[in-house]
Automatic annotation (TrEMBL):
It holds the Pfam family FMN_red. This is Multimeric flavodoxin WrbA. InterPro entries: Flavoprotein-like_sf, FMN_Rdtase-like_dom, ISF_SsuE-like. The keyword Flavoprotein applies. Gene3D superfamilies: 3.40.50.360. Keywords: Flavoprotein, FMN. GO terms for molecular function: oxidoreductase activity.
Length: 246
C-alpha cells in the first residue's frame, strides 16, 4: 500500500535544501512512497504571541494557515522536516512554525509517525540544526528516523540508501516492534510528570490517551534496562516536583 509523506520546506529559496527534498522524493518513489513538498514560504504563518489560547481551546486565535496545516500533517504516514542552516540553527521561518505547534508539545498528536530530518549549510551549524530538528519531533511525540545533511563540500554528493532506509523501514514497520531510545523514554516521562503535576489542563488529554500508566505512547519493544532507568527517573523527578493542586 502506497505511503504518504509530507516534506516541510522552510526557506524562501528553492535551492540546496529543496533540491535534497526533490532527490528524496525520487528515491522514495521506488519504495511506493509518495512525497508532497509543503513550502512554508507560500503560507501565511504569524508569530506565536504566547497567549496559550491553543492550549485552552485547541485552536489558535491567529487567523492564518497554521491550524489547517496542523490538521493535515497527522493524516500522513511520515514527515520530512527540513531547513537550511541560518545562524547555526533552523531558519526563522521554521522556528516560527514550530512555535505555533505548541499544543503538540503538551498534547502529542504525532505519536508513531516517523520523521526524517534534512538540513544543508554553506558553513557551520549542520549537526546542531539536525539535532534541533530531532528535538522538535521528540516534543511532538514522533519517531526520529534519520538525518541527512549537506555542507558546501558535500553539496554535490548523491543521496545514499543508508541515509533514508531507516525512514522507509519505519514507515512499513509494525510499531509494536519499534524500540524507543533512552532520550525518547525520558522525554515521555517528563511530559507525563508535567501533565500529572504542573500543566493540569493537559491531564485530561493524557488520561483519555491512557498514557499516565504507560512507559511510552504506544506498546513498543522497550529494552528492559532502559525501561527500568526511565521508570527510576520518573520516580525521582516526580518526587522532587510538588503538584500545583497540593
Amino acid at each position: 500500500m502506497k505511503k504518504k509523506v509530507i516534506a516541510i520546506h522552510a526557506s524562501s529559496r528553492k535551492k540546496n535544501t529543496y533540491h535534497l527534498l526533490e532527490n528524496l522524493k525520487e528515491e522514495l518513489a521506488a519504495y511506493d512512497i509518495d512525497v508532497e513538498i509543503l513550502c512554508l514560504s507560500e503560507l501565511d504563518i504569524g508569530r506565536c504571541v504566547g497567549c496559550e489560547a491553543c492550549l485552552r481551546s485547541g485552536t489558535c486565535h491567529l487567523k492564518d494557515d497554521v491550524d489547517a496545516v496542523m490538521r493535515r500533517i497527522p493524516e500522513y504516514d511520515g514527515i520530512i522536516l527540513s531547513s537550511p542552516v541560518y545562524m547555526n540553527n533552523v531558519s526563522g521561518m521554521l522556528k516560527t512554525f514550530l512555535d505555533r505547534t505548541c499544543r503538540w508539545v503538551h498534547r502529542p498528536e504525532l505519536t508513531g509517525i516517523p520523521v526524517l530530518f534534512v538540513a544543508s549549510t554553506a558553513g557551520s551549524g549542520l549537526r546542531h540544526t539536525l539535532n534541533y530538528l530531532e528535538d522538535a519531533a521528540l516534543q511532538w511525540g514522533a519517531i526520529p528516523a534519520g538525518k541527512i545533511g549537506r555542507s558546501a563540500g558535500s553539496r554535490a554528493k548523491r543521496l545514499e540508501k543508508k541515509e533514508y532506509i531507516r525512514f522507509v523501514e519505519y514507515l512499513n514497520m509494525d510499531m509494536h516492534r519499534y524500540k524507543p531510545g533512552m532520550k525518547e523514554l525520558i522525554t515521555f516521562e517528563i511530559k507525563k510528570i508535567l501533565a500529572e503535576k504542573v500543566l493540569t489542563r493537559d491531564k485530561e488529554y493524557w488520561v483519555e490517551k491512557q498514557w499516565l500508566n504507560k512507559h511510552y505512547y504506544f506498546e513498543a519493544s522497550i529494552d528492559p534496562v532502559k525501561k527500568a532507568a526511565a521508570s527510576f527517573f520518573y520516580r525521582f523527578l516526580s518526587g522532587k516536583i510538588k503538584s500545583v493542586e497540593e
